[in-house]
Design brief:
The chain is of the alpha+beta class and 206 residues long. It has one domain (2-199): Glutaredoxin. The protein is built from 9 helices and 5 strands. Strands 1-3-2-4-5 form a 5-stranded mixed sheet, with helices on both faces. Helix 5 (86-99) links the parallel strand 2 and strand 3. The termini are far apart.
Length: 206
């Protein structure tokens, strides 16, 4: 596992580099990943707009800010993603905003289809679901926990729908996008705060 993690980190990029990459792909009418279909190119364009909006508008409460700033262990957040992934477009900007609060958190982005061994080591119910956040001890490269591909409330929402109807519909996927827009990253922030609190129980938050 250490070799797989090291390879993933070697192939990773900063969030700023990822955003620059996606911007360049949009200019060239392209996308990351092995599927270069027009549909996936269109998803990348849409997601670029989403990320641009979240990068500008996301707000973090003082409670979360203080808790994240209090975390004093060095972590690497390695997130597996692709530019066409709708969930990732809402989630990655939140990860970035949180990581910016604490220099102990090193946020890195790696592409799924170019790192199959890494993705295969972190499947969700047997699927290569993204985005997948791997939280790593920066000193030892030991994997501490994972998160994703969706925040807790969205996952429950999706799972209930699948149980009832068997598969996600186009209408449901649109509803899910509305959920992300209305939630404004708060569920993701709460989930991450719970993870950090488990890793360092001394973090106090109300």
């Amino acid at each position: 596992m250490e070799t797989i993690i090291e390879s993933g980190l070697h192939n990773s990029m900063s969030y700023e580099a990822y955003r620059a990459l996606v911007n360049e792909l949009v200019k060239n009418s392209s996308t990351t990943g092995s599927n270069k279909s027009q549909a996936f190119i269109s998803y990348t364009k849409l997601n670029n707009r989403r990320m641009k909006r979240w990068d500008k508008t996301l707000k973090i409460s003082n409670v979360i800010r203080k808790a994240v700033e209090a975390f004093d262990s060095k972590l690497t957040w390695l997130v597996i993603t692709e530019s066409w992934c709708g969930d990732a477009a809402h989630i990655l900007p939140v990860f970035n905003k949180i990581s910016e609060l604490n220099p102990n958190i090193n946020f890195r982005v790696v592409l799924r289809d170019e790192n199959d061994e890494l993705m295969s080591a972190f499947l969700t119910n047997g699927n290569k679901a993204i985005p997948k956040l791997i939280i790593i001890d920066s000193d030892t490269n030991k994997v501490l926990t994972t998160y994703g591909p969706r925040p807790s409330e969205a996952s429950s929402y999706v799972n209930r729908f699948k149980v009832k109807y068997g598969a996600l519909t186009i209408d449901f996927k649109e509803d899910l996008q509305h959920w992300y827009n209305s939630n404004k990253g708060q569920n993701i922030m709460g989930d991450i705060l719970e993870i950090l609190n488990k890793l360092q129980p001394s973090i106090a938050y109300q």
